[in-house]
Design goal:
Strand order of the largest sheet: 2-1-3-4-5
Structural class: alpha/beta
Number of strands: 5
CATH architecture of the largest domain: 3-Layer(aba) Sandwich
Strand content: 5-15%
Mean pLDDT: 88
Helix content: 55-70%
CATH superfamily of the largest domain: Response regulator
Distance between the termini: 33 Å
Order of helices and strands: EHEHEHEHEHHHHH
Number of domains: 2
CATH class of the largest domain: Alpha Beta
Length: 204
């Protein structure tokens, strides 16, 4: 498992980058280091089964700003903040911004490795959600305009009879469109259709 995992170390201190690399590589993790947030973003390396260990205080773009940019870009990468200047308000702010963990130097190797392993599990979960949402977008895109209208009204809770009246079409026509919507989206129930519609909307 470790050999497939990618750990990104973003820190402006070369000694920290080297020590973290040694620790992680001893556990057979694939490690990539960057001396700034800008260098990391330029490489844009995140992918499945990965996480980043980021120094919170760096020149130009600090760790918090990097976290915000990853969120803005929709990159599902768990971030572990590692800092020598930690305090409770700072850690609370980091977690609210979406950080996975907040560790204060010096941190034991065991503590850091445990955080990394948990972050990789979170990475797998986030990437599954992202893949599911993208699939929902593609399935909804395959619907005709009328099918989308029928889906929207079904998701809103309207019956076939109410949908027919709203759209000015026959009850039978609504049933046909609704059956096509269920088939094209792969939804097995109305609850499933609501989930797919919601996932598709979050990606638009």
């Amino acid at each position: 498992m470790n050999a497939q995992a990618r750990i990104f170390v973003v820190d402006d201190d070369p000694a920290v980058r080297e020590s973290l690399s040694l620790l992680l590589e001893q556990e057979d993790f694939q490690v990539e280091t960057y001396d700034s947030a800008a260098a990391f973003l330029a490489a844009c390396p995140p992918g499945p089964h990965s996480c980043a260990i980021v120094d919170i205080r760096m020149p130009v773009m600090d760790g918090m700003q990097l976290q915000a940019e990853l969120t803005r870009r929709g990159i599902p990468l768990p971030v572990i903040f590692l800092t020598g200047h930690g305090d409770i308000p700072l850690s609370v702010r980091a977690i609210k911004l979406g950080a996975f963990d907040f560790l204060t130097k010096p941190v034991s190797g065991a503590t850091l490795l445990e955080s990394v392993r948990m972050a990789l599990l979170e990475s797998d979960r986030l990437n599954l959600i992202a893949a599911s949402n993208q699939s929902a977008v593609e399935r909804i895109a395959s619907l005709t305009e009328r099918e989308r209208e029928v889906m929207a009204l079904a998701v809103a809770g309207l019956s076939n009879k109410e949908t027919a009246k709203r759209l000015g079409i026959s009850h039978r026509t609504v049933e046909i469109h609704r059956a096509r919507v269920m088939h094209k989206t792969g939804a097995e129930s109305l609850v499933d259709l609501v989930r797919i519609a919601k996932a598709g909307a979050t990606q638009e």
